[in-house]
């Protein structure tokens, strides 16, 4: 199968190449795509060198599927052109997520809603993916009515420039800035731009995407998203209010049986999910399970995942795997 990766030279694009290799996705020919300034550069995939091409060239090469991770404006311009050529696009940007004509997919939750006619499929926000993977099985059993989430997000979620800023500040070296403030030894309670309601775009993504993926407009979500000086994983403190009463032992059992989730919840031995342990892993880690003692039918939990993998590249590849299993690509 010919597979295009649009944005192949970026952080997520590079991770897509890694995940395609690790999961042995049936790539017969890789088509790496990037901006005009990167055309002609080479990327390595399964021990072979492939030249980066332009989007126009990629369409002419007729891949079966194109994994996009090149930003919203690129997706808005090029995804429809790929789709018109009969190429299935799995897009990692925010461009199509809230488009009512496009599916927003976490395969374990709503992969079955996909059809052969879905030519542009949206990959959710990294912080949303890990949260809904843990929430969905609990919603099926207890019916969630409200979620309060605070995130602690890695600099890798911003990109290479942010990683460089953190490393430069750690060394005391001047360099390009991805953030308006110092990130080393600091915490920045702003991810993306502020909107008129006082929330950031990232916070509202979590609100709207959760409802769309889980298919229930009655779920109320409020979020505070925070950037911390960590590389390789997002963490979330999540407070979940249910309509129905629960037993902690049942919650633990449900999560342990959920594909893609690993429960790490042994506080007596200081065992709980941490980003360093989720680094380069595809699973979502859940722990610190405890009852909210201030409110009935309410649970506190701590959710951690590698934002470049399940939060981006792995989820996109899993969508492609689902489509391939259906023989649609």
UniProtKB/TrEMBL annotation:
Molecular function terms from GO: aspartate-semialdehyde dehydrogenase activity; NAD binding; NADP binding; protein dimerization activity
Binding site for phosphate: 97
Keywords assigned by UniProt, alphabetized: Amino-acid biosynthesis, Diaminopimelate biosynthesis, Lysine biosynthesis, Methionine biosynthesis, NADP, Oxidoreductase, Threonine biosynthesis
InterPro entries membership: Asp_semialdehyde_DH, Asp_semialdehyde_DH_beta, NAD(P)-bd_dom_sf, Semialdehyde_DH_NAD-bd, Semialdhyde_DH_dimer_dom
Catalyzed reaction equations: L-aspartate 4-semialdehyde + phosphate + NADP(+) = 4-phospho-L-aspartate + NADPH + H(+)
GO biological process, one term: lysine biosynthetic process via diaminopimelate
EC number: 1.2.1.11
CDD domains xref list: ASADH_C_bac_euk_like, VcASADH2_like_N
Listed pathway(s): Amino-acid biosynthesis; L-threonine biosynthesis; L-threonine from L-aspartate: step 2/5; Amino-acid biosynthesis; L-methionine biosynthesis via de novo pathway; L-homoserine from L-aspartate: step 2/3; Amino-acid biosynthesis; L-lysine biosynthesis via DAP pathway; (S)-tetrahydrodipicolinate from L-aspartate: step 2/4
Active site (catalytic residues): 126 (acyl-thioester intermediate), 234 (proton acceptor)
Taxonomic superkingdom: Bacteria
Enzyme class: oxidoreductase
Binding site for NADP(+): 9-12, 37-38, 176, 307
Domain Semialdehyde dehydrogenase NAD-binding residues, every copy: 2-117
Entry binding sites for substrate: 153, 227
NCBIfam families per record: asd_B, PRK14874.1
Quaternary structure and interacting proteins, as annotated: Homodimer.
Function: Catalyzes the NADPH-dependent formation of L-aspartate-semialdehyde (L-ASA) by the reductive dephosphorylation of L-aspartyl-4-phosphate.
Family designation: Belongs to the aspartate-semialdehyde dehydrogenase family.
Protein name according to UniProt: Aspartate-semialdehyde dehydrogenase
Gene (name only): asd
């Amino acid at each position: 199968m010919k597979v295009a990766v649009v944005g192949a030279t970026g952080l997520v694009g590079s991770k897509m190449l890694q995940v395609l290799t690790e999961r042995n996705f049936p790539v017969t020919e890789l088509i790496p795509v990037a901006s005009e300034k990167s055309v002609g550069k080479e990327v390595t995939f399964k021990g072979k060198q492939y030249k980066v091409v332009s989007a126009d060239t990629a369409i002419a090469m007729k891949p079966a599927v194109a994994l996009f991770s090149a930003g919203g404006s690129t997706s808005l311009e090029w995804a429809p052109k790929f789709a018109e050529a009969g190429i299935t696009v799995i897009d990692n940007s925010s461009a199509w997520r809230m488009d009512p004509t496009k599916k927003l997919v976490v395969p374990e939750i709503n992969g079955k809603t996909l059809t052969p006619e879905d030519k542009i499929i949206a990959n959710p926000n990294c912080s949303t993916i890990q949260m809904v993977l843990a929430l969905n099985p609990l919603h099926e059993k207890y019916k969630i009515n409200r979620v309060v989430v605070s995130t602690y997000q890695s600099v890798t979620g911003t990109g290479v420039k942010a990683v460089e800023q953190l490393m430069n500040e750690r060394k005391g070296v001047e360099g390009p800035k991805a953030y308006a403030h110092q990130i080393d030894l600091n915490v920045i309670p702003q991810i993306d731009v502020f909107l008129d309601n006082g929330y950031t775009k990232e916070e509202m993504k979590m609100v709207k995407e959760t409802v769309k993926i889980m298919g229930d407009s009655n779920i109320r979500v409020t979020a505070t998203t925070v950037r911390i000086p960590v590389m390789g994983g997002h963490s979330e403190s999540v407070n979940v209010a249910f309509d129905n009463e629960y037993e902690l032992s049942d919650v633990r059992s449900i999560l342990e049986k959920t594909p893609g989730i690993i429960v790490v919840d042994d506080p007596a031995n200081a065992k709980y999910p941490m980003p360093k342990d989720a680094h380069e892993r595809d699973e979502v880690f859940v722990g610190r399970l405890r009852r909210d003692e201030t409110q009935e039918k309410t649970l506190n939990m701590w959710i951690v995942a590698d934002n470049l993998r399940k939060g981006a590249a792995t989820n996109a590849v899993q969508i492609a795997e689902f489509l391939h299993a259906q023989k649609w690509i």
